[in-house]
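Provenance

Sequences were taken from public entries as deposited. Structures were produced by running a predictor on each sequence independently, with no templates supplied. The record for MFS transporter from Streptomyces fungicidicus is shown for reference.
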Amino acid sequence: MTDTRMRRGRAALAFSFLVQGVAFALLVTRIPAIQDRYGISDALLPAFLAAVPVLAGVGSVVTERVVRRVAPSLVLRWAQPVVLLALLTVGVGQGMVQVALALAVFGLAVGALDASMNMLGVSLQRAYGRSIMLGFHAAYSLGGIAGASLAWLGAHGGWALGVSYAPVVGVLLPLALVGSRWYVDAVAGPAAETGGRGNGRGVAFAVLLPFCLVMSFAYIGDSTVSNWSAKYLQDVLGSSEQTATVPYNVYMVMTLLGRTLGDLGVRRFGAAAVVRAGAVLAAAGFALVAGAPGVAAGMAGFTLLGLGLCVLVPQTFAAAGRIGFEKGGPAGSDAAVARLNVFNYVGFLVGSPLVGVIGDAWSYRGAMLVPMVLVLVTVGYARSFEGTGGRYGDGHERARAADVGRDGHRL
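Predicted structure for MFS transporter:
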């Protein structure tokens, strides 16, 4: 496989992550407008919102089975347009049944898209022989910032949802389809020499359990910030309504910064050290938020959270993919990523209600200590990440693995 093809594949996949960041941000940041457009009651809204991650989990499980027969790049090539078209349908639909179906399709397609994107990312990292996974997730963060900014313009301009969504989909959909021509299904190592994708059955859940827990805890922390940072700053720390919107923006910028620089840290110090440092930083951020005497300290805490949490998810995918590859070849890696991806949605579903229940029953300061403790647990699992990222496996893995593609050509 030529260097040019690998570079194009990497750029195309990074663009896919960016597009997904834009699409997801446009959906979640315009939820009040969606609710108003379709007359969704406050009592019914949680069911609509919970359905998306639940169906995304289903989509991820289905993708695990589908990629036993077809390449992940093919799944991604078709899932991304479906996500964008479902988003557009949410914006231009005419009734509650239509928006419910659009959100259901969006959820299923997002699960397939998230799983297949990360399968390709893990596979490309293996072929490159060094950490590049954080860079893909940095592209997602950049897309999220762009999508949230576009949503802000639409909300403040009073634009209808369709007016906000149609130009974005009109630009991104053809670009995503063109970019999909360069996706690369890359593998490396002994499984390539046997000529098979493997059956993926060697990946036991017990082996993946530490990574599943880390993924869940990371997304509990992330959903806590996305759902509660504004309310916490305004209701607990006494900020203005305008200032209360700042922490999440700062969090997203720090996430982008941390992921942009994170691959360098993994190559220099190894994935285990980066995960350990990220967990400690995130826990310190939650502790600072919980004990903040004022607005400035609270914002500093959310800043630390962005830098700490941002490294956990990409490295968890990379580590699970490596273990899966060792157990079951390329199919084992894909299966591990798909199973792990389900816990992305588990954390997202659990995080926000957990903080809300504890906050109402006790205090929101106390509620912030719960994700702090869960993130700290990640420190104990950091050892599971050894051999991932660095100079791909701290040197020993690359030494025993030839870089080849699924087409059998040497990189």
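The longest strand covers residues 186-188.
The beta strands are 186-188, 403-405.
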